[in-house]
Amino acid sequence: MGEGLGVRDGRGVVSVTVNETLPLLVLASSLIPGLVIFSLPEERHGLRRAFNLTGAVLKLLFIAIMLWGVLHGESYVFRYSVLPGLELVFKADALALLFVTLSAVLWFFTTLYAIGYLEGSPHRSRFFGFFSLCVTATVGVAMAGNLFTFFVFYELLTLSTYPLVVHRGTPAALRAGGVYLAYTLTGGAVLLAGVVWLYGLLGQVEFTQGGVASTLGPEYAGQLRMIFFLLIAGLGVKAALVPLHGWLPQAMVAPAPVSALLHAVAVVKAGAFGIVRVVYEVYGVEFAQSLSLLVPLAVVASLTIVWGSLRALFQDDLKRRLAYSTISQVSYIALGVALFGPVGTLGGIVHLVHQGIMKITLFFCAGNYAETLGIHKVSDMDGVGWRMPWTTAAFTIGALGMIGVPPLAGFISKWYLGLGALEAGMPWVLAVLAVSTLLNAAYFLPILHRAWFRPQTAPWPAENIPMKNGRETAWLLLLPPLVTAAATLLVGLFAASPLSPLDWAKLVAAREYLNWAP
Amino acid sequence: MLDPLPWLILLPLFWATLAFVRGPGRGGRLAVAGLLLQLALAGGLARQVAGEGERVYAVGGWGAPLGIDLAVDGLSAVMLLLAQAVALPLAVYARAYYAAHEEGARYFWPLAGALLAAMNALFLAADVFNLYVTLELLGLAAVGLVAASGGAGPVTAALRYLMATLLGSGAYLLGVALLYGAYGSVSLSILAPLLGADAPLAVFLAAALMLLGLMLKTALFPFHFWLPPAHGGAPAPVSALLSALVVKASFYLILRLWLDLFAPLATVAAAQLLGLLGAAAILWGSLMALAQTRLKMLVAYSTVAQIGYLFLLFPLATDTGSVASASAIQGGVMQALSHGLAKAAMFAAAGTVILSLGRDDIARLGGVSSRLPLTLFTFALAGVTLMGLPPSGGFTAKWLLMSSAMHSGQWGWVVVMILGGLLAAAYVFKVLRQAFLPVEAGTQFKPVPRLLEWPAFLLALASLLLGLRAGEVLGLLGAG
To answer: Residue ranges per domain, chain B?
Structure first.
């Protein structure tokens, strides 16, 4: 499969092989539906749905082929020279596949959810068009094979999410959109400065296991520290590291499927994933440690974890509470990256997947409460568990997972982060994890208590979807959170089995440290 | 096959004359046909130059020093391609525009033809005197286009523009005279070997005068005062032509003189001064754009800002070593190309919005996103280039300029470029955000023909895709 099916030109040189096209197909499977959807008239719902779902399924299929291939030693790389010495590179390595699989799977379910959620609302062609572009940008970020390509798609992600954030066109949405742009575009500009600087020093910045920056002599240490600061500051805006997190709670005005995507796969994840790439594959974790860059990163991540959780405690708006929870939880990834040692790496990388699955469940559920009963506030949730048992069950699994209750996904992450902290000789991180867990419990358990154990005190704020034949809400709204909640349970229960996210993260971690076998 | 060198000048004159005789309806059709042919010729010429390098054509068989030479190299081939590639979709657009907006239609086609003939001749001219002639013709045609729409505002703007352009070419002509006095020739190829750092004072003076005149015509800060009313007040197809192409022509001339003829005289101090003016243009133009309440004035001030980037190439390319200087020049030219495409698209899109909505008020654009989605998308895509975000040509330009600045350790320009990009985002999104608001009560959107929307979209798309094909463009630039 490595060659053979390729198109050969006159001189017998293989110009395009299947292995080169697959990364492109993964991009095209959302880009092309997106562009077609833009041109569809608003009322062609069926056709639009068909394009959306076909694209989502095809993407999963292409990724499945690549997963199979990578396990069997194939490599999937596509290169395109933009300028002499400057290439767009798409590469499906183990880390890329982890993120790309997460995005594609969650995109599929979010698409289903969005179709149900936006039933009957205006501007759906525009919405789904940008929705597809947003996913294209995310898989581009995931498969970027060098820093330049990463930057290109990182910025595309900013542009393609703006119309989704302001989709409702209300003054609040437009204000949030403005804040979002101010943060992310400035972050992008800072990132660009770092990227150009690094390219100036290195010529090429291909993502390479073990890093590439260590090839520069010790006299560059000062410059490399400055560049690291620029890169992490630029990425930290999207990853919502404190104090760069201000846009995220504002962006809550977006429709629920957008929030779900923003928090679980697209924007914040792109930032966190960028931090992973920079530390492991640009600097190299061992080299970053020798420049003493990791401890400051761990401190910032820890502060973010605690600060996000603290702020979450005081939010009555459900989606805002979840947003602050995201700020806190995404920094687990940065924390894991900053813990020097393979076990910490494992914890950080596996959390990339686990946080996505759990958070998307919570946002789907929050959307269901809002769509079905008009509930936006935690204080309105009394007794909702008995009106919407399935949704609330999914929410409960997600929330318990976030707290880190075994055997759910979040527990696995926290376990390895804790072990990693000990291995890295940073026992104070355990205290951070403990405080964070307590705070997670403090802001999630009251919700569960209200939903299940308090009687309904007032009529629902706006019951849009009445109970019908024992079904609490539209099935397109219900199915996605149930699936992702089940996944939260399963990836935790079967963490030790082959091809689980944990197993795949082990594969990644093993390749970043030269002398380690899981 | 027609020889592109003379025909790129003759064809537009030909259809301009016919359009004058036959009136705007048929004139427009002829212009589109002529431009199609011109684009093919410019494409063929580019391929030729890429393959065989630069070439010279002696008009009427008489070469320099007696006759007139036309010369083409990589830089002029690229600029010729840009001019035809922008003008063709704009001609299609203008046909649709003037069908809905009678005023000024009569004079548009003849003047546009004259403008293109002068511009093509300028890109092909091989001596400083012919450069003057073409520059003057170009300026007069442009002033005519601004004035032709009638009304007190445009005429005042046109008069101001006329003063600026005459003053600019006057200064340039004075410089040419001084050069001729010193060396007895106006041919670039004859003058170039004669000029050295030991040149007499008169030559330095000539260089300064020519440069100053061209800066005035390019509307480099602080000589930009004439540009916003002229570009913002003219009908949309005219604004697009002027902002996309006309200011680039005088910039092309500055670049050409700086790199070839006056290269021995160029000092780091002068280069830094140009760079500083460019930086001031970027910041001031962007801030002014942000402060505008009228859509076309915003776009016009954005041109003032974007011109600034072009001038950053001088400090980056002067005495900085071959790597930094090559990438600075490439970045500057890339910026000229991508801004040309994007600004034409943006003015065209703004024109479509104004035709449909009947007003030019940024605060009252509500509903544009749902009623004119393609046009808004065009505006946004063009905006991506202006902000310098990937994968646009504007991004490639900035990448090259920034790399060059890092290479020669001139950090300040990087900061300016980053700030400029963010300010551009601020003024582009100022428009986009209003367009997402719901339709204002009592607003009627007039339906617009597709031929108004699609040419603009194609221009914006081209500015975006330019970034992905930059390698080929820069290859052509390096040829000859």
So the answer is: 282-480
Q: Where are the alpha helices (H) located in A118-170, listed in sequence order?
A: 124-143, 147-165
Cα gap A112→A258, rounded to integer Å: 13
Yes or no: say if B360 and B372 are a contact pair by the CB < 8 Å rule: no
Tracing tokens 């808004």 back to the chain, one arrives at: B376
Specify the pTM.
Answer: 0.93
> CA of B407: how far to CAs of B248, B270, B321, in Å?
27, 20, 9
Give the list of residues 6+ apart from residue B421 with CB closer than 8 angstroms, or none. Answer: A185, A189, B387, B388, B389, B398
Q: Any idea what DSSP says for residue A88?
A: E
Model ipTM value: 0.91
CB-count exposure of residue A301 (10 Å: 0-12, 13-18, 19+): buried
- Measured between alpha carbons, how far is A411 from B238 in angstroms, rounded to an integer? 65
Neighbours of A103 (CB within 10 A): 29
CA angle A382, A384, A389 (to 5 degrees): 150
Closest Cα to residue B174, out of B216, B144, B145? B216
The DSSP result for B342-390, as a single string, is HHHHHHHHHHHHHHHHS--BGGG-TTHHHHSHHHHHHHHHHHHHHHT-T
What tens digit of pLDDT does each residue of A246-293 get? 999 888 888 899 988 888 888 999 999 999 999 999 998 889 989 999
φ and ψ of A145, to 5 deg: -100, -10
Nearest C-alpha of chain B: how many angstroms from A172? 11
B382-B384-B386 Cα angle (round to 5): 75
Residue B301 in tokens: 């001030």
Name the residue with tokens 């544009």: B368
**Strand partners of residue A14:** A8
**A206 is written with which tokens?**
């291909």
The answer to whether the CB of B262 falls within 8 A of the CB of B285 is: no
Between CA B337 and CA B80 the distance in angstroms is: 11
Chain B positions contacting chain A at CB under 8 Å are 369-370, 373, 377, 384, 387, 389-391, 395-396, 399-400, 402-403, 406-407, 414, 418, 421-422, 425, 429, 433, 436-438, 467-468, 470-471, 474
In this structure, the number of other CB atoms found within 10 A of the CB of residue A22 comes to: 23
Among B418, B403, B416, B351, which Cα is nearest to B382's?
B351
Inter-CA distances, B352 with B105, B362, B455, B462, Å: 16, 14, 11, 19
Question: Is there a contact between A156 and B400 if contact means CB atoms under 8 Å apart?
Answer: no
B460 vs B337: CA distance, rounded Å: 12
Residue B59 near residue B70 (C-beta atoms within 8 A): yes
Kind of pairing, strands A77-83 and A7-8?
A: unpaired
CA-based nearest residue to B214, from B136, B283, B290, B268 = B136
Nearest CB to B384; choose among A151, A159, A197: A159
- Mean pLDDT in order along chain B per 10 residues (480 residues): 86 92 86 95 93 84 76 93 96 91 83 96 90 93 88 85 93 93 87 84 92 94 92 91 94 92 88 96 96 95 96 91 89 96 96 91 88 92 94 93 91 94 95 88 87 95 92 82
Indicate the residue type of B428: V
Owner of token pair 């046009």? B375
Q: Name A480's Cβ contacts closer than 8 Å, sequence gap at least 6.
A: A109, A110, A112, A113, A360, A364
Q: How far apart are CA A129 and CA A42, in angstroms?
A: 11
| Chain B positions in Cβ-Cβ contact with residue A85 (cut-off 8 Å) | none
Q: Report d(CA B357, CA B111) in Å as an integer.
A: 28
Identity of residue B177 = A
Total residues belonging to chain B: 480
Cβ of A192: how many Cβ atoms within 10 Å? 26
Q: How many residues are given for chain A?
A: 518
With tokens 């009957």, the residue in question is A120
